[in-house]
Amino acid sequence: MDIQNHFYGHTAALAGYAGLSRPRHVAGLIQHGWTNVSPISVNFGDFPNVERNGRRKLFVWSHDSRAWDPAQSQRLSFPLGAPWAYLVSTGPVRTQLAEHRGSGTLIMPLHSTRIIQVSGDQGSLAREYLRTEGPSTVCLHSEDIQKPEIVDSWLDAGHRVVTAGPRHDPDFLSRILALVLASERVVSNRLMTSVLYGASLGRAVGVYGDPMSISGAKNHGQDAIRSLYPEMHGESLDRAMTTDIARTELGFQHLLGPAELRSALGWNGRSVGPAMQYWAGAPLHKTMNVLGLGERDPDSTEKLVGAGPSAWLKHPMSHLPRLLPSHAAAVDPLPAPIPVARLAAVRS
Description:
The structure is a single chain. This protein has helices at residues 10-18, 39-44, 83-87, 91-99, 122-133, 148-156, 172-182, 193-200, 217-220, 222-228, 239-249, 258-265, 272-290, 301-304, 309-313, 343-347, and strands at residues 28-30, 57-60, 78-79, 105-107, 118-119, 137-139, 160-163, 185-188, 204-207, 213-214, 338-339. By secondary structure, the protein is of the alpha/beta class. Strands 9-8-4-6-7-11 form a six-stranded mixed sheet, sandwiched between helices. A three-stranded parallel sheet has the order 1-2-3. Strand 1 (28-30), helix 2 (39-44) and strand 2 (57-60) form a beta-alpha-beta unit. The longest helix is centred in the last third of the chain and has 19 residues, at 272-290. It is globular and about 55 Å long. It starts with 9 loop residues before the first helix and ends with a helix.
């Protein structure tokens, strides 16, 4: 129904589990990242009425998260489970998980987005992790690999730097999986989706170091996150406990069978409704929101961080619909992460 459904290889992962060769249009909206508050306003804030007629659903990852109570929400949602949970539940991935214990540390630091900027001393964080974790693999978001000061900070400290690709890449999630499987430990300076991914597979995790500053601090305050998830913060954590928490937050308990998943997403046949919404309805609605002429959830990320039209106009094409992903998530073999070099070297 909207391009956000296909971010980070999520529908590609769902399609593979559902037995399809490629994703289709979704009859609703899929949560595309873990949040420490209700995912309804954060992920679906541009569409405050989409589920009201009953033909579209709001697919969230979990109804058992500590971050929110679905019973207190004014909007109905469907607990689907995270696309990650479906990806790692496929036969080929289960086999690889049993065969790979991993080694070394994977670092996935807090990253900027097109509307939220992170600021802080990346060099100090990189050097701190070098002292505590040793030379590690650092996976930077596609928004940050174009910033020489960030890339150089990690390379200068002696780490290997890679990326999982742009958010529209259908193999994004598969590359994250390849990195997690290759690692014994996953570390970040904030509790984020990537930490839960690692913990859900039984990897040791750590959340420590300078959390950096981020716009919208009211929504992402560190004190609130620490008090809500104390077991997930620190350099050395109880592995059994973090695994259990992560799997609950990611909704492993909600996983559907392949046929049930196809039915829930509206993938049993071709439907013109979700396609029309994807190509015309959703882009028009978001354009009206950017211009201040539409309706947004009052707790949407854009409203909380004060993102105006200028934030969207910096990357106007990225918000437009594009052809659906061309294939389901690659799992056998998993795609390799993309190496990141110094930008100066790339230009020479």
